[in-house]
Amino acid sequence: MVDDGVVAVNPLFARPGEARVVDKYRMPTESMLPETAYQIVHDEIMLDGNSRLNQATFVGTWMDSYASKLYSESFDKNMIDKDEYPQTADIEGRCWKILAELWHAPEPTATMGTSTIGSSEACMLGGLAFKRRWQLARRAAGKSTDRPNLVMTSAVQVVWEKFCNYWDVEPRFVPISEEHKCLDGHDLSSYVDENTIGVVAILGVTYTGMYEPVDKIAAALDAVHHDTGLDIPIHIDGASGAMIAPFLQPDLVWDFRLERVHSISVSGHKYGLVYPGLGWVVWRSSDLLPEDLIFRVSYLGGAMPTFALNFSRPGAQVLLQYYQFLRQGKAGYYSVQKASQDVARFLAQGIGVLDAFDLWNDGSDIPVFAWRQTAGHTENWSLYDLSDRLRLKGWQVPAYPLPDNLSNVTVQRIVVRNGLSMDLARSLLDDIREAVGFLDRLRGPMPSEGQTPGFHH
Ligand SMILES: *Cc1c(COP(=O)(O)O)cnc(C)c1O
């Protein structure tokens, strides 16, 4: 696209004496009318994709009108101003205590937790607590703290690569394979040593939606503990699953019921059903969060402990989370998540029966599933071509390679969120069938220019 560095103002909104184009990369010298500025921004974002048809994202794209009302009443609140907004601060505490109870913390009201800007910040805090605990123990034992490492699957979300990069921790990736599709405790003992600060288990792997079997991972670490004396904790990256499992798989033991689980993080803005900008992290008990990581901010004449990377942060999302907790209750969360799971399983079933595809999983963990092309089906088209065909209809359904050691396998994935109704899902399935029919009728291979996934985890 030719970039002439200016944005043209729709002539209908241009007024006598006002510029008809504005600089893109320089602040205008003069002010403009709010209607005009509004119209420019409004028109620009018209070309973004339709968020309801975005089957790539896990992040909330729909809330009801009372949530919008509450949002507009509270978007001026800064979460860090605990003293100025004591009620918002109190509600933040209620929210993470509710989560602590949902995740079976032994003493939900006596532990430690916080809201964050998303799971990424929450994961960083979980990782930092691991690193500091390990350092304190190593120093106390007169041992070196030079080479900390963190063990996780090769299918981790990018935040864990960032954590290791930013905080100087060696990442140790356990590769996935056809036999071990996620981190399942297999061979774990050969990855951990005295420098392992912790193991990450993912509840709802981003690439496929599968739960990692936390009980098996914990059992493998129990065996390491027994054999070597190394007592290695687990952080649960429950970005999606920590708000699904308590409702849809209540008997699955993945949370603080396992003593080795020290901390759990979740994205409030994924299946917590809030708009973007919210995560949570909770510790099993407050002694697992080293005291020297905690800062105090002034609150009602006293001091309130805080642990966060950001200082200022919107408070409105926290209020929206509390709204959802009240509005939905356990019954509401169950029905919303169950509806998503029903749609995911319906779609997985409909896609799985097509000759062209093999399902990787069926959407019965989090409402997310992936599939690959059946081996030998065709040389004429790939999942990238299918993704392009669906884009013609407005659907965003990404295709991408799996991570090591399966980077030769391309999969395509659908994330079902609140807002993708059964009716919309039927249309999506029709469009997939039609696109596959078109691609299968090709008499030669689709031309390609070195296709690459335009998608990041
Ligand atoms: C989405 C996701 C993250 C990052 O969460 P944000 O809330 O987007 O920062 C981390 N881990 C997993 C497993 C995720 O799915």
Examine the coordinates and then state which fold CATH places here, giving the name of the CATH topology of the largest domain: Aspartate Aminotransferase, domain 2
> Please, what is the CATH homologous superfamily of the largest domain?
Type I PLP-dependent aspartate aminotransferase-like (Major domain)
Rounded mean pLDDT score: 94
**Radius of gyration from CA coordinates:** 24 Å
- Summed up, the domain count is 3
SSE topology sketch:
Blueprint (H helix, E strand, L loop, with lengths): L5 E3 L12 E3 L10 H12 L19 H10 L11 H17 L10 E4 L2 H22 L8 E5 L4 H9 L3 E5 L21 E7 L11 H15 L5 E4 L7 H4 L12 E7 L11 E5 L11 E5 L2 E5 L9 H37 L4 E3 L8 E6 L9 H10 L6 E3 L8 E6 L6 H19 L17
Parallel strand pairs: 4-5, 4-6, 6-7, 7-8
Antiparallel strand pairs: 1-2, 3-9, 8-9, 10-11, 12-13, 13-15, 14-15
The structure holds pyridoxal-5'-phosphate.
Pyridoxal-5'-phosphate binds next to helix 4.
Can you tell me about this structure?
Its EC number is 4.1.1.15. InterPro entries: Glutamate_decarboxylase, PyrdxlP-dep_de-COase, PyrdxlP-dep_Trfase, PyrdxlP-dep_Trfase_major. Keywords: Decarboxylase, Lyase, Pyridoxal phosphate. The strands form four sheets. This protein has a seven-stranded mixed sheet, with helices on both faces. It has a four-stranded antiparallel sheet with strand order 12-13-15-14. A two-stranded antiparallel ribbon has the order 1-2. The chain is α/β, with parallel strands linked by helices and about 450 residues long. The longest helix has about 35 residues, at about 315-350. The chain contains ten helices and 15 strands. The chain has helices at about 35-45, 65-75, 85-100, 120-140, 160-165, 215-230, 245-250, 315-350, 385-390, 420-440, and strands spanning about 5-10, 20-25, 115, 150-155, 170-175, 195-200, 235, 260-265, 280-285, 295-300, 300-305, 355-360, 370-375, 400, 410-415. The relative contact order is 0.13. Strand 6 (about 195-200), helix 6 and strand 7 (about 235) form a beta-alpha-beta unit. The chain is globular and about 70 Å long. It folds into three domains: about 5-50, no CATH class; about 65-325, Type I PLP-dependent aspartate aminotransferase-like (Major domain) (Aspartate Aminotransferase, domain 2, 3-Layer(aba) Sandwich); about 335-440, Aspartate Aminotransferase, domain 1 (Alpha-Beta Complex). The structure holds pyridoxal-5'-phosphate (PLP).
